[in-house]
Amino acid sequence: MRIASNQRETKETNIALECRLDDPNLVEIETGVGFFDHMLEAFARHGRIGLTVKVAGDLHIDSHHTVEDTGIVLGKAVREALGDKAGIVRYGTSYVPMDEALGFVSLDISGRPYLHFEGDFSTPSLGNFDTELVKEFFQAFAFNAGITLHARILYGENTHHKIEALFKALGRALAEAVRIDPNIKGVISTKGVLE
């Protein structure tokens, strides 16, 4: 079973996280940022990933460190849980509609971190979650997981719907990419490794 646990403690955040790529049954999220908890749960449920996250962050300042650092720890956990990446499909793409909004994510578990992000939010915050942190989370996750990640809001009006569509699309695309295909021997790469 592909499982990784990570803990990260700084002066800004204390994060304990466990990621289970093959056991989607347990999802428990507690970051202190309600909307972010909702998005991480949507990511995990739609990605069919078991995820437990407990964060104590400097929310008296704002939610930036909590959101970004969670992306860092989650990315590292996914990378660790994948191990040598033998047998994985590697690529994943998902379009997710959320009422009037449509989100798109395409990713490659390549070992080469990159983020292309397109999305504008007319509402600056949802609860104590600053909407500009969506890109920060995606970047922290991609760079620490070693994933090439393209994320785009194709259209939409409601900020909640647009962000939720992206998080669900990220989960679904990741679920596709980490799936093990028994017909794949080693890794899908002309190099013979995915680093």
UniProtKB/TrEMBL annotation:
Its EC number is 4.2.1.19. It holds the Pfam family IGPD. It catalyses: D-erythro-1-(imidazol-4-yl)glycerol 3-phosphate = 3-(imidazol-4-yl)-2-oxopropyl phosphate + H2O. GO terms for molecular function: imidazoleglycerol-phosphate dehydratase activity. It is found in: Cytoplasm. Pathway: Amino-acid biosynthesis; L-histidine biosynthesis; L-histidine from 5-phospho-alpha-D-ribose 1-diphosphate: step 6/9. It comes from the Bacteria. The keyword Oxidoreductase does not apply. One of its GO terms (cellular component) is cytoplasm. GO terms for biological process: L-histidine biosynthetic process. InterPro entries: IGPD_sf, ImidazoleglycerolP_deHydtase, ImidazoleglycerP_deHydtase_CS, Ribosomal_Su5_D2-typ_SF. Keywords: Amino-acid biosynthesis, Cytoplasm, Histidine biosynthesis, Lyase. Belongs to the imidazoleglycerol-phosphate dehydratase family. This is Imidazoleglycerol-phosphate dehydratase.
